[in-house]
Amino acid sequence: MLNFDFQNPTHILFGKDRIADIGKHVPADARVLILVGGASAEKTGTLAEVRQALGGRQHSTFSGIEPNPSFETAMKAVQVVREQGFDFLLAVGGGSVIDATKFIAAAAPFEGDPWKILTSWGADITQALPFGTVLTLPATGSEMNNGGVITRHDIGAKRPFRSNKVFPLFSVLDPAKTYTLPMSQIANGVVDAFVHTIEQYLTYPVNAPLQDRFAESLLQTLAEIGPRLLSAPEPVYDDRATLMWSATLALNGLIGSGVPQDWATHMIGHELTALHNIDHARTLAIVLPSMLEERRVPKRDKLLQYGERVWGITTGTDDERITAAIARTRAFFETMGIGTRLKDYGLGAEVIDVVVHQLEEHGMTQLGEHRDITPAVSRRILEAAL
Amino acid sequence: MLNFDFQNPTHILFGKDRIADIGKHVPADARVLILVGGASAEKTGTLAEVRQALGGRQHSTFSGIEPNPSFETAMKAVQVVREQGFDFLLAVGGGSVIDATKFIAAAAPFEGDPWKILTSWGADITQALPFGTVLTLPATGSEMNNGGVITRHDIGAKRPFRSNKVFPLFSVLDPAKTYTLPMSQIANGVVDAFVHTIEQYLTYPVNAPLQDRFAESLLQTLAEIGPRLLSAPEPVYDDRATLMWSATLALNGLIGSGVPQDWATHMIGHELTALHNIDHARTLAIVLPSMLEERRVPKRDKLLQYGERVWGITTGTDDERITAAIARTRAFFETMGIGTRLKDYGLGAEVIDVVVHQLEEHGMTQLGEHRDITPAVSRRILEAAL
Fold this sequence. Notes:
homodimer, alpha/beta, 14 helices, globular
């Protein structure tokens, strides 16, 4: 087991009708800026619930945070915060709104150009406004971690940042709030949480059997509920609850503590989103199967363990079992209605040069748990994903 | 899944040579009271390491906190804190030292009689001194939770308390610090963590498959490493690390979130420790098998799942499988060198009246996840444990 630090102070308020409890966790004299994406938070009544829970507190709403939130939009919110003196932020939405809120919380009091927050991967953050979240789309885990990703359109860059200053103070996780989501977003959430887990599990063994089993618990659970979520004629509360809690625990720092981590699939996927606006989860579904195929040798031991424990693959030679494990992974994503080939998104070989160039531009030249995924290897992975 | 709140702000510093990092987490101007049990922290050199990590900070050491720490001893430390103006506590030891430190942290600034902290189950705690811990004995999970148990000898009472004010600020978990422990304490740690998990798992199903699998991960892992820890001719770092992290995660609030909890075994066990000074883990090993036997019907579904997933019991009628699961549990404790009968500790039927009387005295008359373990049921459980 590797040495590690683990700390996660976010207060989770999980379950039915928990928005009403927000009032206990926001200072009585706070001036609150609520941040939302499109119109759905208003339409579903969630925003009204949130406003009621804030009681007499002064508050206003900033809407228009887009999927894969942009630096440009976030900076508009920063201006509002600064000009109108808001001192507490409240994200109502999914990972995009929460990621943007983290950035805004850090950027508002930032001295100098907030772009430095992203070029320093968050290291330059020294303070942030306190904020809470009301999660409506389970997927990214942003509701209980200290990271985010912001896209800058003018240079086509999707940049992750991380800082202990941007843990949410609290996050409300009400599974019933997912009932109005389109099924494609539920599918994205399942695949996103699944790949987050894989990134922290499918590397090489370090004698950490508990971390392995926790990760396998998440993968087994997502594999079990994924197809059921899609086929249910009406939303089933417990399955929605399990998806929500699984997505949170897949990326709150716990399962990655003390073990190697990969994240190469994410880094390549980010470029596909930045260039071609493909949903984050779908870029992961495109890259991961080819990544595993390319990394059969360095990931051999964990691929065999994954195949056996998650998919019940126990017969055949090692190579056959690995092939089967990768095939089951791809089939799972496809079952969730998510294409695993570039061509499923109308893209062909012509995009690969640009993606590889962007990886180089962004310093993504030594990816993976062994830091040996060079641009040439990324190219092979993309070619295998055509 | 049940509604729940989860928050755990403790910073874990896990791994080799982490004591040196304490300095980063204790305020530079802190006046630190180090709390220890017997002489072992001094003898093993751990205390010297801790003092060095504190650098120039003013500090003193209070030693003599006993296993199952007493109200009387803790109050002596409270007096020292108050008289000498310490403002930061540092527990160096196992669950007993850490539990006592939590109580001392809350009792020192407490207005009125600190006994009220225990009669209120911790609810009367409104503030506490900040404190860190250096864990040397993995077992209770106290290093990453907000609870403790204090024994008052004059009235033979062992009282639990809980408050969000007494989460450790940080805990250093260095697996190598367990190398000097006697093997009986390693065995205690395995059984303690195992039963902590059981208390939050082996109740009734609420459609929470992720929580189930996380609990099963802990049980499987402890069952796997337990015998290996005992038979290893020399300590194996990774197994010690896995025991330490397992014991922490077995009782940090995570696996019990959103599911029913039992704790009847603990409540009966506490009386055995208070009356007969049996190690905490050993009282659990005495009570649990009889408890499961008594609760075959209300726990049926989870007993079958536990037998299958933790012990691989898949054949026989339901009743046969439940019998086998309970037998495997008892055999596991015995394999760890821990007796599972009152007679193994020189006790007979004569103690039962007193234990039942004490349960009544302490209000423990409606135990278990259904609150239906009356003193009469506790009596049957103890009779079955003779």
